[in-house]
Every structure is written in C-alpha cells, then in structure tokens.
Amino acid sequence: MNELISQRRSPRAFDADATISADDLRTLLEAARWAPSHGNTQPARFVVGHRGTPTFDAIFETLTRGNKTWAFRASVLLIGCVVTTDDRGPIPNVEFGLGLAMENIALQAVDLGLIAHMMGGFDKEAAHRAFAMPPDARPLVAMALGRQGSLSDLPEDLQAREQRERQRLPLSETVFTGSWGVSELG
pLDDT digit string (tens) for 33-46? Predict the structure, then answer.
C-alpha cells in the first residue's frame, strides 16, 4: 500500500502561525481537479479561504461549536460542494465525485507535509446562503488544512482523541464473497 494512504490522518492540532503558500494551495486543488467522477462530469466545487480573510471567517461561522474549538488555527478552511446539473441535465453520483476529490486533497496534503481534517459538522444551509450558491450547488463537507501544531493547544478531550491508536475494521468485516457477511479474507 502506498505510504501516503497509511500516513494520512485527520488531526485537529493545527499550527496557528503556519501558512499555506498559494503554490501549495493550487497543488492541493489541482489534485482535486484530477479526481475521477461519473462520466467525467467533475461535479466538485470549492469555496476556499486563508486564515485572516473574510472567506475563512464566513466558513468558520458555519462550523459546529465542537469544530470551532480547534479549526480557527487552520491555515485554510474550505467547503467541498457539488453541482447537481450540467448542460446534459442531472449529474449522477455527485457525492462519489466530491469524495474522490476530497481524498485527493487529503493525500496531496500528506505529500506536501501538511495535514487535513474533513468535517461534516457545519451548517450546510448557512454555507449555501453565505456564499450565494446557485440552487443546483450543495455544500457537503468542510475541510481544515495546515501544518501540524501542538496537542497542548487542544482541549483535553480532543488531546486524548488525537493520541488514540488508529484502528480500521478487518477486511473480513468489510469484504464479502458470494453472500453478505461471508468473507474469504482474514
């Protein structure tokens, strides 16, 4: 397995003094642009703001209270959105396209020595309004990007979560052959 995959984590301890260069941000977004999508429809769209800008602040305001306890230290906040139609009509499987684009960003972040944390905890309707999105655009996920910071900057409960051992279900519980729940993998 590629090391980028095994090294990818979702930390919350961001360095509040770090920045992401325009070139690195462009590289991250290019990685998203090259993600596969259903029929090459490319439904992924992004609202992106560097810390200290009105866009960052507007994204931050949509976050849930728990995410606000740490995300303010990120260098960049973004909202991953989908457009649901194109000139051919409704686009199928838009979530698939955005998911792949977001994972490309997360893996590219590892390659650049950055960290990325995806968040479902934000007010999607508020984001839609704040950025005057068209009716066929749907915000689905937020992401914080930056450099690793100190665990001591996080509330105690989050410090403990950050230090937990990473666990994944065994393949025998996720990959089946012949019938649901029957696995040939150990």
Answer: 999 999 999 999 99
